[in-house]
Specification:
CATH topology of the largest domain: Immunoglobulin-like
GO molecular function, one term: structural constituent of muscle
Organism: Athene cunicularia
CATH superfamily of the largest domain: Immunoglobulins
GO cellular component, one term: M band
Number of helices: 1
Structural class: mainly beta
CATH architecture of the largest domain: Sandwich
Keywords: Immunoglobulin domain, Repeat
Strand content: over 45%
Protein name: Titin
Distance between the termini: 120 Å
Length: 1172
Amino acid sequence: MNAAGVGEPAIIPSVEIKDREEIPDFELDAELRRTLVVRAGLTIRIFVPIKGRPTPEVTWTKDGVSLKGRASIENTDSFTLLIVTECTRYDAGKYLMTLENAAGKKTGFVNVKVLDTPGPPINLKPREITKDSITLQWDMPLIDGGSRITNYIVEKRESTRKAYSTVTTNCQKCSFRIPNLAEGCEYYFRVLAENEYGIGEPAETAEPVRASEAPSPPESLNIMDVTRNSVSLAWPKPEHDGGSKITGYVIEAQRKGTNQWAHITTVKTLDCVVKNLTENEEYTFQVMAVNSAGRSAPRESRPVIIKEQTMLPEFDLRGIYQKTVIAKAGDNIKIEIPVLGRPRPTVTWKKEDQILKQTQRVNYENTATATILTINECKRSDSGQYPLSAKNIVGEVSEVITVQIKVDAKYKDTLVLKAGEVFRLEADVSGRPPPTMAWTKGEKELEDTAKLEIKIADFSTVLINKDSSRRDGGAYTLTATNPGGFAKHIFNVKVLDRPGPPEGPLAVSEVTAEKCVLSWLPPLDDGGAKIDHYVVEKRETSRLAWTAVATEVPLTKLKVTKLLKGNEYVFRVMAVNKYGVGEPLESEPILAVNPYVPPDPPKTPEVTAITKDSMVVCWGHPDSDGGSPITNYIVERRDRTGLRWVKCNKRVVTDLRYKVSGLTEGHEYEYRVMAENAAGVSEPSPTSPFYKACDTVFKPGPPGNPRVLDSSKSSITIAWNKPIYDGGSEITGYMVEIALPEEDEWKIVTPPIGLKATSFTITDLKENQEYKIRIYAMNSEGLGEPALVPGTPKAEERMLPPEIELDAELQHGESLDRASIESTSSYTLLIVENVNRFDSGKYILTIENSSGSKSAFVNVRVLDTPGAPQDLKIKEVTKSSVTLTWEPPLIDGGSKIKNYIVEKRESTRKAYSTVNANCHKTSWKVDSLQEGCNYYFRVLAENEYGIGLPVETSESVKVSERPLPPGKITLLDVTRNSVSLSWEKPEHDGGSRILGYIVEMQSKGSEKWSTCATVKVTEATITGLIQGEEYTFRVSAQNEKGISDPRQLDTSTTTWHIVSATVARTTIKACRLKTGCEYQFRIAAENRYGKSTYLTSEPIIAQYPFKVPGPPGTPFVTNVSKDSMVVQWNEPVNDGGSKIIGYHLERKERNSILWAKLNKTPIPDTKFKTTG
């Protein structure tokens, strides 16, 4: 249509109204067109956009099997989604997708590779087996887990055990020889493949494998017999069965002129008859042993021609001496004679000249190789000639065997019967002229009695005994005598009856008032049966009735108890066998009294040592112990003010002395002692004198070093030292006496109350007169021994050059401000009170007057605790430890340094705690410190006199180390000549504040790193770069301890792993993260039309939000009793980010190294009462 109007129409062809069809199609993204690689345990997610009209029907298969059961499949008109969760190695393979609608059909596939441990090796089988080794062979697993097999692990177990043991963990081939197996044992084996993802599933032998090999061949193969069509073979067992039971033997034959061995048969015995052979042919035979491991090597026989063997019959009589058999009447005779001959001869026996009539008692038997004549319970009438003949087609031979039956009983040598039965002893006798016969028993000839009947004929005799008892048992001897000599036979008769009396005497020993010991011997006659036990009875001699002591005594000794003191007893013992209780054996009467009496009283006690609360009492052994060893002494005491004797010892005393304690000071005590043995307690000993409980005091010893200090014409000045021994009491004074040299009359020249000082000037003396002078020390006990002044000093003026004047200098010229110095005309005295280790050293004295000067020195060694260690240094500091070093003290206190004590304290606390109380080195590493805290340390030396002065660190030490590298570095911006970087703070600052960061760069192709920035914040812009040049950057953190390792800018690509592909919520928990690893997460939304762009999270480290707490404060004791303490402490400075739920308290003794835990559950409070 236009302005002019409507134009001509266009005619549209007829159109059929129907749905438009489109052939199915799909589009695989680049990742799916390659092989899809997924780690085991994660999810296989295959998302394929599809199209087609109508909407195609989608089917997924793998290896021809539908995936509906294994996978979650979602199909829409625009995509198909297949999800396999927690995939394993078996989910690897080719996933086939088929799209089909009315317009057509299209298929596609996705190859999926699952990274997992490998599957089991296949075709595992033993290849070579010996008696001590097995070689296994296998093929590689069908599924290698998406990674090359690195090695195989071979394991074995005995079939009787359940646990496998490893043979090798690094087998590189598909076969392995396992040595050192136990021969004959059965084993299971399994093989596991290993790749970079771990050890896979095992392949195991289905049946146990026996460590064995083919046996050795039999030692020989013997031809035993040959007929016209058969051969009899025999062979011994092989020397070695190869470790497995021989199951049979294979026989093979080879005809002469052929090289082929023909299988004949398999047998389980050691012989075989090979039949159906060709007559007059020559054969060689071989035998092989067979076990589960196979056949042995063959053992061949000699060649043999198959034909009938002919041979004249022959008897082998080498086993019969002079063709005569001699036996006793009643014996069984068996005559076996080997018979030779081919063909086998027919053998016949005769008695004299009559064919031998076979009966049950007398008969013969012919076997393949021998003839056997048997005569049971032979009689005299069996004596005579026994001809035998053997006949075959070759001929006949004959021999004669003589049988002689000797005189003997008609019964066996020993006749056994029960009590009350009748026994008969019969004998046939031969001899010419007829012998005379006599029966004896025990050297006594037997005669007829009412009980015993003897019948004698010419050539026989019988003895009959009625109503037999045990006494009738024994040896009965029959003697036959004629002029030609005599013959004897002994019949042993055993009558089963109750036993006879035990063999005496019945001994009674170890008799006391309450018990005794019985002993005896077994009966000579046990009644023909084992003695089971004994019955012991007793009776008092004043009574007739016996009472049982023990009814089943297994031994020949018994201890009898519960006797009444003073009673007289008789004992009897009877043996018991299965036929009853035997006759008794009685003892002599015995009186139940002790063979001993209480001991005599001990000797009079004496006291040898006394203190204010104890005395040592001694006494002599009693004259007699009463016949029984003394087992105890009883010590008793009595206070002078009391009447009652008190026992002093609660425990047993066997010594002849005892320390009595718990006495009251000032009280007087007397003592007595009683001895005790098995019979009782003795009479008391005579009482001791009274002794007073007080510390013992003795007179003092003589004064030390008496000497003359000065003299004048009317006086002598003397001095002395205190006595070495003060007698246990304080020295109260001294007394001085003088006498003329030739006289013994001594005169006291000191005041009556004594002299307190240790020097004295004796005055009013005659000029030029010599004197003897002696000095006494006195205490509360009186005057001690005197000390005599050497020589006989004279009262005269002394002309002496000057001797000593104190220089007043000590140790390197130090002034003796601490010393008290007293100088007189005759001596100088230097006193340093309350000395310590610093007073050790060299004391120099100088004396000077107009005549000259003189010097001397005295070395003084003060025994004290040591001085402070020297040069304490901090050697090494980490975030949890500090290493200390020091030098030994200059002053060791006069004794070797035993050890050092190391202590620490936090700078916020005042109290030190001990780190190590027994350090034997001059260095120590103090660990388990709280990171970032400041500590003081000190060290003290210890010798045998105690712990010395401490040396302390002058400044506190901060427990820290170099920081960790900075966190992840992010590239913020890049221009043509600059780069902007940012990074995260280090995960750990080393316990000390980060002071700054050092940024370094390296241009491509260079190995040198250069510092390009030093900043205090976590970002930096580096300028002045060359456009087009490639750079690498790294950042290091710095604190007061140093510079961390650098963190380099990561320019590598990132691999993203699917956490979940089907999340309907907006939250999800990510599991299976590795502690300490840094992760980033990204999320995309998805609808039917596809997937959105990703939203990426900040990097985050998988770690706990808290740490272990720091140590509590040093514990201190707030309350102490004799058996308990209340211990208190402060909370830790750092709780690790989580509330403190409790404390654990331990203790140890000073000299111990073991800590013992005091609480069973955490202590919620900061104090705890410990007991015990």
